[in-house]
Amino acid sequence: EMAITKLLDTIHKGKASGDHVLVLSIDIKGVFDNIQHSAISSYLDDSKCPANIVNIFKNLLQNRKVILNTCEGPAIRDQKQGCPQRSCSGPALWNLVANEILQENWPINTSIQAFADDFVLVSHAPTRVQLESQINESIAKFSTWTSKNQLQISAEKTNYLLISRLVRGPTIRWQGERIKRAHAIKYLGIYIDEKINWNTHLKAQSTRATQLYHNLLKIAGKSWGVPLIHRRTLYKTVTERVLAHGAVAWCLEPTVRIARKLSTIQRPFLLAISGAYRTTSTAALQVILGIPPLHLQLQREARGTALFRLRLPLSTNISDIDPSEIEEKATGWSTHPSEHLSPTQISLDDGGNINTGLRIYTDGSKAERGVGAAFCVLTDVNITHRWSTRLSLRNTVFQAEILDLLKAVEHAVSLPTQQLTILVDNQASINSAANPKSHNSIARKIFKLLHSHPHIRVSWIKAHAGYIGNEEADRLAKEAAETENFPETPLELPKSFIKTFLRQKMLATWQMAWDDGDTERLIHNIIPKVSLHPINWTRNEVLFFTGHGPFPSFLHRFNLAETSFCSCGEIGTPIHYATVCLLTTSYHMAPPSQQHQPIWFRRVANNSTSRRKIHNLLHFLQRETSLFRPVPN
């Protein structure tokens, strides 16, 4: 996402200046197979890598042999090129070589970027002649670098995209071969077209979706195959993941056209999952299956990517959250891998029976008004110190627990060295603090303090078990959470809050569209509120409640039956068969009056016994089709 976003930003800056923009996609033939070991060794010598690591890699690349058994015996050749395949070090070794060309001095208004072996040059200029000069000068520099490292460019697969109103594009040649102009280029799985309207990408996504749809049909028919819940899982975990690739680039603010195209892509999957008739409304199927409109789902993920990975703010009409306020994931080790806490420092056994030495009790609490964190110090039976603070309502209980543990450890460090135990009723915060690779920055601070002060012990304690210290810490935390003017400690926003916020935004937009829609009002009456959880109706129940099923009234509307009447003489509607038809008396329920029909449908849908009767009724209707068709005159 970062590479794609960076490329688009560069393109947009060129367009904003009013220049012609050219994007050159460069393909290097078998780069990982053809990179020379001598080149890697040379770049290793020039790097700032420690000498011992340099020698390890050089030793790894020296005296490598390739042995092939032939009819005449084994053939042995020296291997002098190629990165170690599928190794963690392979990309790093390639980056050493690629870094030289990335640091080259490029012509004015020209830049280069790479992701693995995918290079792309972007240049912009006010005239075609100047643009042609800039890009050909850049190609000459790139060609010099490839020749130096014995790499070859595939002129057939290298092409350029011109974002301009120029009818005639610049003439670009690579060692005498002309580079072709393309209407769209594929970069890291995303198609970027010359108008940047994502038409080409959406067409490609539609083609991929069609392939996935046909694969789904192989294991899931209308009335056979894997159950509905597993079809839905396959869609969410496979299809949706494929379609969501790079959404931050093209679906952060989807247009009406993109939304319609994505709805068209999503619709076949909704029909395959539910088994509904193809005339059923897409909006109704989305609500029944608990699957949001695809453009809203992708937009939600794009917003999350923008905030979490790219650290880009959203538009002010969506959120005022500053990415710098969001909690960052800590990586690597907090200390040297050989350094661990003493085995006696951490205990997950109930420490309620500890009654010697100094004891510090911690607790966190969340109420409707805010979040509180507190600890108290117990000497014998006397509380000698109290500390508490209030956090934002956006913060979590875990953040409160990990913060009060940090403050308790810091307080313990400030005291004279003595037998001391910190008692915590939250095992998650203890486990996080004891983990040297914890992703939480506060937990890492706790680990370092505990490691340098081995006399401090941390033990779990059962909550609300009548321990004086625990009850006092709980009281202090609740008091801080519920007191509006209490001193507040600012903490970064947790990822869980952002996810919940984005989910609620998506649900609100979906709910508005569902309320304002003009189709499937009967389903809206039954399911007025959208949800991410499926209703768990069977296929027969979906056919009945949508009204799109084996009913003469429905079939006649689409010219699939000669009449809308049942063979009993009345109009063959779903409610007719469920209440009054002479041919379905075994499945009848009490008939409602005309004005109470919406309430009747809602009550039937919410009653499992009634739904079972509806399921059996539809099974009977589909099995005995000829009974419900009037005999032609």
From TrEMBL:
UniProt cross-references to InterPro entries, sorted A to Z? DNA/RNA_pol_sf, RNaseH-like_sf, RNaseH_domain, RNaseH_sf, RT_dom
Task: Report a single Gene Ontology molecular function.
Answer: RNA-DNA hybrid ribonuclease activity
Give the highest taxon in the source lineage: Eukaryota
A Gene Ontology cellular-component term: DNA polymerase complex
Q: Which residues form the Reverse transcriptase domain?
A: 1-179
Q: Which GO terms describe its biological process?
A: DNA biosynthetic process
In this chain the RNase H type-1 domain maps to 354-482
Fetch the PANTHER family from UniProt.
REVERSE TRANSCRIPTASE DOMAIN-CONTAINING PROTEIN
Q: What is this protein called?
A: Retrovirus-related Pol polyprotein from type-1 retrotransposable element R1
